[in-house]
Backbone:
């Protein structure tokens, strides 16, 4: 018997009014996310992936369709418990951390709002959170501007952990980092997912980022879910031309990927070519 998904989208649609026009950003999409998995939502700018993330977070209500958490429909106005259990790690942590607060104060705020631990216990909880994300406890007294991009992203991840979240929406969490720091953050996220039984929704335009962390990949184009498959199967045998074009844009770093590109090139030639993805 299949376990109940932790998060489900059913016929989700979101329209926006732009002047006299209606723009359909997300068009009748459905998917389930199992507890403990990492689902990557991939697509170019304008594909609808960020709109889906905002609906999951309760920032935008669906025009139609529903989102369910643990089998119960999520209300348009989220409760404090919903905001606690479904957290966000943004692309740019500098904009999400209050520059006037120390790192300790930012982490304590999450503990205070959601009433985790006693007032006396919270300093030790902050220290443990920093250690879990690979930062020395001495970072507690620093300001966000005194940290590097990778260190700030670790603090943002620690803040999500402070809320004892179950689902974490990661919105391009490594795109502002250099390749080496990016790899370290991805390893950290994978370790924390295992340690805490977290569920990740990983939003990105770059398939190469999620290849080694995602269990499944949902490919979005023009607001539609065009392909959803296990990560290995998607890379080995993509069924949609658009997915092939995204994979073809992934930098080649191994013999296996060279062979994969060769197979895709042959498929594309047989299909009459693949549309090149936009910038």
Residues:
């Amino acid at each position: 018997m299949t376990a109940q998904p932790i998060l489900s989208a059913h016929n989700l649609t979101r329209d926006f009014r732009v002047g006299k026009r209606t723009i359909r950003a997300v068009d009748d999409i459905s998917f389930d996310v199992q507890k403990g998995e990492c689902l990557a939502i991939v697509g170019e700018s304008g594909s609808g992936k960020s709109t889906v993330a905002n609906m999951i977070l309760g920032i935008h209500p669906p025009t139609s369709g529903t989102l369910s958490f643990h089998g119960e429909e999520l209300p348009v106005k989220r409760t404090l418990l919903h905001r606690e259990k479904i957290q966000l790690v943004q692309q740019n942590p500098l904009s999400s951390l209050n520059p006037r607060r120390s790192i300790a104060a930012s982490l304590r705020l999450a503990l205070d709002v959601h009433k985790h631990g006693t007032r006396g216990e919270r300093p030790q909880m902050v220290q443990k959170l920093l250690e879990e994300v690979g930062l020395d406890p001495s970072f507690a007294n620093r300001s966000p501007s005194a940290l590097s991009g990778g260190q700030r992203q670790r603090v943002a991840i620690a803040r999500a952990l402070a809320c004892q979240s179950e689902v974490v929406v990661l919105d391009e969490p490594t795109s502002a980092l250099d390749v080496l720091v990016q790899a370290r953050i991805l390893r950290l996220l994978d370790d924390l997912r295992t340690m805490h039984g977290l569920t990740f929704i990983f939003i990105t335009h770059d398939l190469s980022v999620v290849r080694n962390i995602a269990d499944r990949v949902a490919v979005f184009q023009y607001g539609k879910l065009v392909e959803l498959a296990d990560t290995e199967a998607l890379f080995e045998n993509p069924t949609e031309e658009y997915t092939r074009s995204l994979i073809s844009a992934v930098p080649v770093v191994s013999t296996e990927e060279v062979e994969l590109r060769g197979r895709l090139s042959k498929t594309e030639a047989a299909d009459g070519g693949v549309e090149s993805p936009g910038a």
Q: What stands out?
A: Confidence is low (pLDDT under 50) at residues 271-279. Residues 133 and 154 are 6 Å apart (CA to CA). The longest helix spans residues 179-196.
